[in-house]
Design a protein that fits this description.
The chain is built from 9 helices and 16 strands. By secondary structure, it is of the alpha+beta class. The longest helix is centred in the last third of the chain and has 14 residues.
Length: about 300
């Protein structure tokens, strides 16, 4: 099988591991920098050009998108072009775009009655008091819609601090969410790694002392964790709503059950492979072997 991995850097741990896993299983794996691709959009013969090469529908059986948040628009356009050419895309373009929009994701999950932290969103600075009131007051969490890896996430411990942060972000014309602070999570969250309709691995991430963000990129630590049946079901249902075959689902343990924080369509492999000692990369390749068929990509999820 010919597999393309769309990644800006072939030396990244996650990209390198999937290349190794694909080769070990007898496949030909190629890493393509999606920003170096350009597309020939025609009705009869859509194609993708990469540097001096031109790819036709027969060149790749499957595509693994590893699209960074900062290049979502162009990256998903490249994925969409591969879909037009009949290649099987592990995560389709619509699903990647859907998961990258934090507000849209939360609205879709809410519509399907999947637990999320109480969240408020507004355009006008006149609504600041109402935003804070709707999430139960301070302390509360303020998030930039475009933030990733914990960047642009602020814990406001008092009402005055919350007002100041919200007004500052709005003054910069930044879109933000205001969410309730789940104190009982104690600075930890759970990353569930979903492939297909199963949680294949899970780890608990703990924020360092003095920090509430548990992202490993922010200095958090990861350990193996056992999920409850409800947590496992919530993670799988979340992936289905997003339409993602491979994703990281981040949840908080709260007094009212698991609450979804975020869904990552390009989850990193290093932290979860080290914490669980599972060969996640090979499990992804095995999923592709079972499911990759020409023109099989189709819109999953809703919204």
């Amino acid at each position: 099988m010919n597999i393309a991995i769309l990644s800006r850097n072939k030396n990244l741990y996650s990209t390198r591991r999937m290349v190794e896993a694909g080769i070990e299983r007898g496949h030909h794996v190629r890493v393509l920098d999606h920003l170096q691709c350009f597309m020939d959009i025609t009705s009869d013969k859509p194609s993708i050009h990469y540097k001096d090469e031109e790819f036709s529908p027969a060149d790749f059986d499957a595509v693994i998108p590893r699209i960074g948040a900062s290049v979502t628009f162009y990256g998903t356009a490249v994925v969409r072009q591969f879909e037009m050419m009949g290649a099987y895309c592990v995560n389709e373009s619509v699903a990647v775009s859907r998961s990258r929009d934090k507000l849209r994701s939360l609205q879709l999950l809410s519509r399907k009655n999947i637990g999320i932290p109480t969240t408020a969103f507004a355009h006008s600075a006149k609504d600041v008091e109402g935003l804070i009131r709707e999430v139960g007051g301070a302390p509360c969490v303020i998030k930039l819609l475009e933030g990733t890896q914990g960047i642009g996430v602020v814990l406001a411990e008092t009402k005055k601090a919350a007002e100041s942060v919200i007004q500052a972000f709005m003054g910069l014309n930044s879109n933000i969410l205001v969410q309730e602070f789940i104190a009982e999570a104690n600075g930890s969250d759970i990353r569930c790694f979903v492939v297909g309709d199963k949680v294949i691995a899970a780890m608990q991430r703990q924020a360092p002392e003095g920090e509430f963000r548990s992202n490993i990129h922010r200095g958090g630590t990861a350990t193996l964790v056992k999920l409850t049946p409800q947590e496992r079901k919530t993670a799988v249902n979340t992936a289905k709503v997003m339409g993602l075959n491979v994703c990281g689902v981040d949840l908080l343990r709260s007094n009212r059950g698991p609450l979804i924080m975020e869904v990552n369509s390009s989850p990193g492999l290093r932290g979860i492979e080290e914490a669980t000692q599972k060969d996640i990369a090979t499990l992804i390749i095995e999923f592709i072997e079972k499911n990759a068929r020409p023109s099989r990509t189709k819109t999953r999820g809703s919204g």
